[in-house]
């Protein structure tokens, strides 16, 4: 085995080292980043050639020229439906095509008319047709300003940092014959566009990092553009980084990096790249929410600067007293190694509008089967079938529900994916059937690297169809990963994705059943002996280099896997696929998690902003490894992590193979009881979680939300990332510090009231609330004015609870009103797309609670009924009556607890899918 492989495995298996930062590049070690960052603001060489402008109903084009090298670019400007603007910049006549990202946009965006308002020798003004919105295009130097009335919403190239490294022929090599032919055919064009830049800089045609040499046959191809956001101090997004949700300025350090990599024991509060990349920045102030979506899949660095960065509160107050008229501004600069500039400007103006805009481009969160929202039990690795059966029985013995047990790489036959170890897992169908009998599921890992072995059918199939990624010389690219010598399927090729999807068919994935779901790990891709633990950039995917498509690799793996699970069911069942690496649009295919974290309090704390950042950028189905993947958590940390994890969209416990076993009952009776209560509480909220996922799937709105999304003018919420909302109705403040006996939570909304879900105590919004805590408590509040459906009969799995009754928790607002919803379907098929569901509005006003149908064209029946209604903040009625769908009236029993103003109405007994009213007199 290669020495690099041995060293890497040693690091993983000892579990004692932290991230080795020297294995990963800084901006100074990335030639294109260093080159672009050296550009001086305010010295843009680009001007717009207004005489080349062409304006159709929906598209403006004109040429830009670099006055230093005379290379021309083509600018395309589009107004898009939904208050968006698209800006594309490419070479006017490149030597060969430049890569443009496919498959991420769900469709070609719908354009809307633009009109010319004015034009002179300095520029043009275009109307965007929305509330006096317009674009001002300045010619010298080139600049775009998007305005609304007299307010500048966003400026492009205002700092003059547009850069576009054109394709060229290397001076010290023989000219490309095809280029020579082009020279002969178009001498006039070449004279104007091929005046070369000055001296070649280091790293333009070849770059070395450690012992790895990256050849660059196309030479320098980097692109860059700056965006200015007047009036903005808070920007978010561009996951994945182990950092605060609010992005920091990068002027005194490295930019944020987007380059999907397998980072062992990642460092916290760092701009280092991690497993996934979503090139979307969200900006917010009290007046507007906007976004920039940079559609580029190459290695990308994002610089952020601010004119208010570093100012103390006193400094800002002094500005105010002295009458400073300096307007806050944040500047964002994108630098990518290759491709073209393809930027979408999302103009909001509300957070809800922005999420709808981004969803119209990249899609919404896939609607998962309801059982994937339950609890997942995982470790690397459960030893054998008997171990799986014993763990499964342990959950029953200790009365703890769960839905999935997981198997890591050791379940396979010699790291050959789509296989089972013949000794440890000799009867996988028997194991799966045993779980199915209890209405439980199993997840098996299927990584996107293939053992190179002539007797391995998958390898033989990929090789015979020539579907592996190639090295620069045309041979199959080989690296080291878990199987040893490994091939990497070219998932950028649709034929490879189709082959991969077919592998999940029951007759090909022997031993699999319909209750087997899939986990794609290592899909950055991870290459143990590659530069930065990933694939060399000059590897080839057809005509494209890996540098062009790198951040798409994991996206394509999850896409192919999800399609495979759908195909195996004949298109009937919704898949569940977890992936570590992701890109914009990955939300359409499943869930992600925050990777290989550590059993430390700071890693618990950082999991909140990491998932909030993902949620802001479309990926709603997110969680972290409960307890920490590396090392062994103390019991207090483990309990606190279960508490936090139970209120995150994806709820899984996971651990490294060298950590002590940590099934929920292995930490003493008291802690077993605490964890049992936490997990059971998660199951009571499943109807609410499922409803949130349905809403997210339909609208693109996140599930786990920063507070400012619903309180956009409340500046106190803008930087809060240690608490969050689920939907708009639950506020959660996990305890993330050791040994504390109290926390302070901010309750937003000066006109709101919030109720502690455990004590039902009422609190006013717009305040910091001091909350005493014990090891058994996690502060959670229900918003006054909301109604949340729950199921209180917790069983061994979510499927066992399918027909159980509902309890409605009605939290009255200041006007003694409340609203909520119930959504019901079969929980796992695509039949909801055929209108087979129940969607009802539950409301209370004027002492009447009613259920009305929100989907009159839908049809579905349920056995579930309304078991009780709990009204929080109520007054005692003298009588409670029910009027059911048939018109009959009946008197209902109730109890009233005056100490907490809690009214419990018992056994209305009405079907959850029917009309009914309850009247309080």
UniProtKB/TrEMBL annotation:
GO annotations of cellular component type: glucosidase II complex; Golgi apparatus
GO molecular function list: carbohydrate binding; Glc2Man9GlcNAc2 oligosaccharide glucosidase activity; glucan 1,3-alpha-glucosidase activity
Domain Glycoside hydrolase family 31 N-terminal: 76-303
Annotated signal sequence range: 1-18
Biased composition (Basic and acidic residues): 173-185, 192-202
Domain Glycosyl hydrolase family 31 C-terminal: 700-788
Gene3D superfamilies, alphabetized: Glycosidases, glycosyl hydrolase (family 31), Golgi alpha-mannosidase II
Record CDD domains: GH31_GANC_GANAB_alpha, GH31_N
Region entry Disordered, spans: 173-203
EC number(s) reported in the record: 3.2.1.207
Record's catalysed reaction(s): N(4)-(alpha-D-Glc-(1->3)-alpha-D-Glc-(1->3)-alpha-D-Man-(1->2)-alpha-D-Man-(1->2)-alpha-D-Man-(1->3)-[alpha-D-Man-(1->2)-alpha-D-Man-(1->3)-[alpha-D-Man-(1->2)-alpha-D-Man-(1->6)]-alpha-D-Man-(1->6)]-beta-D-Man-(1->4)-beta-D-GlcNAc-(1->4)-beta-D-GlcNAc)-L-asparaginyl-[protein] + H2O = N(4)-(alpha-D-Glc-(1->3)-alpha-D-Man-(1->2)-alpha-D-Man-(1->2)-alpha-D-Man-(1->3)-[alpha-D-Man-(1->2)-alpha-D-Man-(1->3)-[alpha-D-Man-(1->2)-alpha-D-Man-(1->6)]-alpha-D-Man-(1->6)]-beta-D-Man-(1->4)-beta-D-GlcNAc-(1->4)-beta-D-GlcNAc)-L-asparaginyl-[protein] + beta-D-glucose; N(4)-(alpha-D-Glc-(1->3)-alpha-D-Man-(1->2)-alpha-D-Man-(1->2)-alpha-D-Man-(1->3)-[alpha-D-Man-(1->2)-alpha-D-Man-(1->3)-[alpha-D-Man-(1->2)-alpha-D-Man-(1->6)]-alpha-D-Man-(1->6)]-beta-D-Man-(1->4)-beta-D-GlcNAc-(1->4)-beta-D-GlcNAc)-L-asparaginyl-[protein] + H2O = N(4)-(alpha-D-Man-(1->2)-alpha-D-Man-(1->2)-alpha-D-Man-(1->3)-[alpha-D-Man-(1->2)-alpha-D-Man-(1->3)-[alpha-D-Man-(1->2)-alpha-D-Man-(1->6)]-alpha-D-Man-(1->6)]-beta-D-Man-(1->4)-beta-D-GlcNAc-(1->4)-beta-D-GlcNAc)-L-asparaginyl-[protein] (N-glucan mannose isomer 9A1,2,3B1,2,3) + beta-D-glucose
Alphabetically ordered keywords of this record: Endoplasmic reticulum, Glycoprotein, Glycosidase, Golgi apparatus, Hydrolase, Signal
InterPro entries tied to this protein: Gal_mutarotase_sf_dom, GH, Glyco_hydro_31_C, Glyco_hydro_31_N_dom, Glyco_hydro_31_TIM, Glyco_hydro_b
Enzyme category, top tier: hydrolase
Pfam family, any one: Gal_mutarotas_2
GO BP annotation list: carbohydrate metabolic process; N-glycan processing
Predominant place of localization: endoplasmic reticulum
Pathway: Glycan metabolism; N-glycan metabolism
Subcellular localization(s) per the UniProt record: Endoplasmic reticulum; Golgi apparatus
Domain spans labelled Glycoside hydrolase family 31 TIM barrel: 366-691
Family: Belongs to the glycosyl hydrolase 31 family.
Name of the featured protein: Neutral alpha-glucosidase AB
Organism: Takifugu rubripes (Japanese pufferfish)
């Amino acid at each position: 085995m290669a020495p690099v492989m041995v060293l890497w495995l040693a690091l993983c298996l000892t579990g004692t080292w932290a991230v080795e930062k020297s294995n990963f590049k800084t901006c100074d070690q990335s030639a294109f980043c260093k080159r672009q960052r050296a550009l001086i603001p305010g010295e843009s060489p680009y001007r717009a050639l207004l005489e080349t402008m062409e304006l159709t109903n929906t598209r403006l084009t004109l040429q830009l020229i670099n006055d230093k090298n005379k290379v021309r670019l083509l600018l395309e400007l589009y107004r898009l439906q939904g208050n968006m603007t698209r800006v594309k910049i490419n070479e006017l006549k490149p030597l060969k095509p430049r890569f443009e990202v496919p498959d991420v946009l769900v469709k070609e965006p719908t354009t809307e008319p633009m009109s010319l308002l004015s034009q002179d020798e300095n520029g043009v003004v275009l109307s965007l047709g929305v509330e006096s919105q317009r674009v001002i295009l300045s010619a010298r130097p080139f600049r775009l300003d998007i305005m609304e009335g007299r307010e500048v919403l966003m400026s492009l190239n205002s700092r003059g940092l547009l850069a576009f490294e054109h394709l060229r022929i290397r001076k010290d090599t023989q000219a490309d014959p095809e280029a020579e032919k082009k020279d002969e055919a178009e001498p006039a064009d070449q004279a104007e566009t091929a005046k070369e830049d000055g001296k070649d800089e280091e790293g333009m045609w070849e770059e070395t990092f450690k012992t790895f040499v990256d050849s660059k046959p196309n030479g320098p191809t980097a692109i860059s553009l700056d965006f200015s956001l007047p009036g903005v101090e808070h920007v978010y997004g561009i996951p994945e980084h182990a950092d605060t949700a609010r992005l920091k300025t990068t002027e005194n350090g490295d930019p944020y990096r987007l380059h999907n990599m397998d980072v062992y024991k990642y460092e916290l509060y760092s701009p280092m790249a991690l497993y996934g990349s979503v090139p979307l920045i969200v900006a917010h102030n009290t007046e507007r929410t906007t976004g920039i979506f940079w559609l580029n899949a190459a290695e990308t660095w994002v610089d952020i600067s601010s004119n208010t960065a570093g100012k103390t509160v006193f400094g800002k107050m002094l500005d105010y007293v002295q009458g400073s008229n300096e307007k806050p501004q944040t500047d964002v600069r994108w630098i990518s190694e290759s491709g073209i500039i393809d930027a979408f400007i999302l103009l909001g103006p509300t957070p809800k509008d922005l999420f709808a805009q981004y969803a119209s481009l990249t899609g919404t969160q896939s609607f998962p089967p309801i059982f994937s929202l339950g609890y997942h039990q995982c470790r690397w690795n459960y030893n054998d079938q008997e171990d799986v059966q014993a763990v499964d029985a342990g959950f029953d013995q200790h009365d703890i529900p769960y839905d999935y047990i997981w198997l890591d790489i050791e379940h396979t036959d010699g790291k050959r994916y789509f296989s089972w170890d013949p000794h440890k897992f000799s009867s996988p169908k028997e194991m799966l059937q045993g779980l199915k009998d209890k209405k439980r599921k199993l997840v098996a890992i299927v990584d996107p690297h293939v053992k190179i072995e002539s007797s391995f059918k998958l390898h033989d199939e990929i090789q015979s169809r020539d579907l592996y990624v190639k090295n620069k010389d045309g041979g199959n690219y080989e690296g080291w990963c878990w199987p040893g010598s490994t091939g990497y399927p070219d998932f950028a090729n649709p034929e490879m994705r189709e082959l991969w999807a077919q592998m999940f068919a029951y007759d090909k994935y022997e031993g699999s059943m319909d209750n087997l779901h899939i986990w794609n790990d290592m899909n950055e891709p991870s290459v143990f002996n590659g530069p930065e633990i990933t694939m060399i950039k000059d590897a080839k995917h057809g005509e494209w280099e890996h540098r062009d498509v790198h951040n798409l690799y994991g996206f394509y793996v999850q896409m192919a896997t999800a399609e495979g699970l759908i195909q195996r069911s004949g298109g009937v069942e919704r898949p569940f696929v977890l992936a570590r690496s992701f890109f914009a649009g990955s939300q359409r295919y499943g869930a992600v998690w925050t990777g290989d974290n550590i059993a430390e309090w700071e890693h618990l704390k950082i999991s909140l902003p990491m998932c909030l950042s993902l949620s802001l950028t479309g990926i709603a189905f997110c969680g972290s490894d409960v307890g920490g993947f590396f090392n062994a958590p103390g019991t207090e940390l483990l309990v606190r992590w279960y508490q936090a994890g139970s209120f995150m969209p994806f709820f899984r416990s996971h651990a490294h193979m060298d950590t002590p076993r940590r099934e929920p009952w292995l930490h003493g009776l008291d802690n077993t009881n605490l964890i049992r209560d936490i997990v059971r509480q998660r199951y009571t909220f499943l109807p609410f979680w499922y409803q949130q996922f349905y809403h997210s799937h339909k609208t693109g709105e996140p599930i786990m939300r920063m507070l400012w999304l619903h309180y956009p003018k409340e500046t106190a919420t803008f930087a809060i990332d240690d608490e969050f909302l689920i939907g708009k109705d639950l506020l959660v403040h996990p305890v993330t510090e050791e040994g504390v006996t109290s926390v302070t939570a901010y309750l937003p909304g000066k006109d709101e009231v919030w109720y502690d879900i455990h004590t039902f105590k009422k609190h006013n919004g717009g305040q910091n609330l001091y909350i005493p805590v014990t090891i058994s408590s996690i502060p959670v509040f229900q918003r006054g004015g909301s109604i949340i459906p729950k199921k209180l009969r917790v069983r061994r799995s979510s499927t066992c609870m399918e027909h159980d009754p509902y309890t409605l928790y009605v939290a009255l607002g200041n006007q003694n009103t409340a609203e909520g919803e119930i959504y019901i379907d079969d929980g796992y098929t695509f039949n909801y797309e055929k209108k087979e569901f129940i969607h009802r509005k539950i409301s209370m006003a004027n002492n009447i609670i009613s259920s009305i149908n929100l989907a009159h064209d839908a049809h579905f029946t349920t056995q579930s009924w309304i078991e009780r209604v709990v009204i929080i903040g109520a007054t005692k009625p003298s009588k409670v009556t029910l009027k059911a769908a048939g018109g009959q009236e009946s008197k209902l029993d109730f109890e009233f607890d005056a100490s907490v103003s809690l009214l419990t109405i018992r056994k209305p007994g009405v079907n959850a899918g029917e009309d009914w009213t309850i009247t309080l007199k």
